[in-house]
Amino acid sequence: MSLAQSSPVATVRRFPAASRSASPARLHPKEHGAYAILGVPLVTALLIVELTPVTALVSIATVAGFLAHEPWLILSGVRGRLTREATPLASRALVVRLTIATACGAGAFWLSEPLVRLGMLVFVIFAAVEFALSSTGHGRTLVAQLMALAVLALPGAVVLLAGGVDFLTAAEFWLIWAVGRVATTVSVRSAIMRHKVSPSGQALRIGDGLLVSAGVISAVGIATGSLQWMATIPLILAAVALRIWSPHPRHLKRTGWSLLAVNVFAGIMLFWIGVN
Predict the structure, then answer these.
(1) Residue 179 backbone phi and psi in degrees, to 5
(2) What CA–CA distances, in Å, run from 24 to 66, 135, 188?
(3) Residues of 57-95 as b/e, b for ≥16 C-beta within 10 angstroms?
(4) Using an 8 Å Cβ cutoff, are 22 and 83 in contact?
């Protein structure tokens, strides 16, 4: 083979697209598990209380803010420079979604009682911190993911408050989802880590510690006689099964669907307990 036949020009002709441009990115969140983490508690809360102008506005503002997350990541460069340049509609999507979130949130704030307003302010503060962490590329760290779990469970509690549920019950509702999601999330992270070439022993121990802590908190909640805490049982059991089984990362899609089913079942339990 001659030198001319293996010239760089031939290589460029074979791979032009990969080196020059990227396809436009989708403008909805890529983390599919986040849809269930936000949606199941929110829908459960809406089913427990009546749909009112405040609960509707809070829900719309929450969904709009959630959908603004992906355009924010694209524009902040987390998805890569080429993706940002190939997705010119990201700016418009971000402005529209944040405008809807702000308008609906302001309307709900205006119509709400002081306690509901406090819950909304707490949610906005934590959401802003999570957006900041994600925009710096730390969205996949354990701290950022735990904060996201706490943030995404808050709107359901705020909806309960807006629907007339007392503060302690709404706070318990939030804590139940947060504890259950911490358990399943650290189990998924541990499963992924165990299949790496050099898994971090310290990270695995931290995950196991959080899983045990979630189990203890769940047991204490059940021991107090509060029926709501029964909803953590399927989440904790699923987390333990994941930790023992540790499915290969190539099976994570199937695992995700299984966790969705578990979350829906927990939501049905909370709904049944809430209306009885």
Answers:
(1) -65, -45
(2) 20, 19, 29
(3) bbbbbbbbbbbbbbbbbbbbebbeeebbebbeebeebbe
(4) yes
Are both 186 and 139 inside the same structural domain? no
CA–CA separation, 48 and 272 (whole Å): 9
| Residues 31 and 157 occupy one common structural domain | yes
Q: Provide the residue range defining the domain that includes 239.
A: 166-276
Residues 68 and 11: their CA atoms lie apart, in Å, by: 39
Considering the domain architecture, whether residues 230 and 244 belong to the same structural domain is answered as yes
Q: Which residue has the tokens 């399943």?
A: 184
- What does the pLDDT profile of the chain (276 residues) look like in tens digits? 443 444 443 444 444 444 455 567 778 887 778 999 999 999 999 999 989 999 999 999 999 999 999 999 888 888 888 778 778 888 999 999 999 999 999 999 999 999 999 999 999 999 999 888 888 888 888 999 999 999 999 999 999 999 999 999 999 999 999 999 999 999 999 988 888 867 778 888 999 999 999 999 999 999 999 999 999 999 999 999 999 998 888 888 889 999 999 999 999 999 999 877
